[in-house]
Amino acid sequence: MADAPKCAKCSKTTGEGGIALKRCAKCKSVLYCSRACQTADWKVHKKKCGLAAGTVEPVVLTTPEGTHNFNSGTPVVPKGLDSTLPKPFTHLHHKTWLHNRSEKDVFRLLIDSFRLMLDDDYKFENHTPENSLYSGSSPDSRIPFRSFLQQAQRKSGLLPPWWTAADGTTKLDECVAFGLTDEFSNLKCAVDKGGIIDYYGQSNMPMQLRILREQITGRGPMGQSGAAMITMHMAMESGQGPQYMSTLDLSNNV
């Protein structure tokens, strides 16, 4: 009888403890029971992974740095944004994620970080800010969004340098106005994780927006910290961790 498939790191088998083994997304030849096991095994597996993947058909995959073609390695500009940002989680770590972007992109990302925060807090904590769509007392969420932007302005260096002019005026009013007219990033409409992924075309964009929310408000969804995710993805961006984690997202769909 053939041996049962097992995790390449901890040797757990399918069904043991209710686990479901998943293949490395690049070479499709090695099984893991969790993201933690794949991360721990990467230093060993990466030496063989590229060779094993040599005959795999061309695949376009979303990675932490954008959407790439395995053959060309060429980054594709995320949908909905004017340009891409190399190593986004490294920028999040340094709190420069909103820097070196166009004005409209900064407005979009601030608005969508806020909109996702409203949806997260409503779904997971039954929290509905006054004067927002979720409270039913307003046709849009501009009032709590202004407070969100004011919090961001108090975080030194988080917003790009051009946000505040020499005379002390800021882009706050322009950002709010943009959020009342933009087709997608609109304060008159709710959005959830799935909507963010569909619009931007990046599976980890909700994570990036949630980390920005935490940096602005001091609190992540349900009080959870994004520090561990930043560390893991920074390692991936620097080539020190697994580069192909898309099939090993074992978290629930929130």
Automatic annotation (TrEMBL):
<protein>
    <recommendedName>
        <fullName>MYND-type domain-containing protein</fullName>
    </recommendedName>
</protein>
<keyword id="KW-0479">Metal-binding</keyword>
<dbReference type="Pfam" id="PF01753">
    <property type="entry name" value="zf-MYND"/>
</dbReference>
<dbReference type="InterPro" id="IPR002893">
    <property type="entry name" value="Znf_MYND"/>
</dbReference>
<keyword id="KW-0863">Zinc-finger</keyword>
<feature type="domain" description="MYND-type">
    <location>
        <begin position="7"/>
        <end position="49"/>
    </location>
</feature>
<keyword id="KW-0862">Zinc</keyword>
<dbReference type="GO" id="GO:0008270">
    <property type="term" value="F:zinc ion binding"/>
</dbReference>
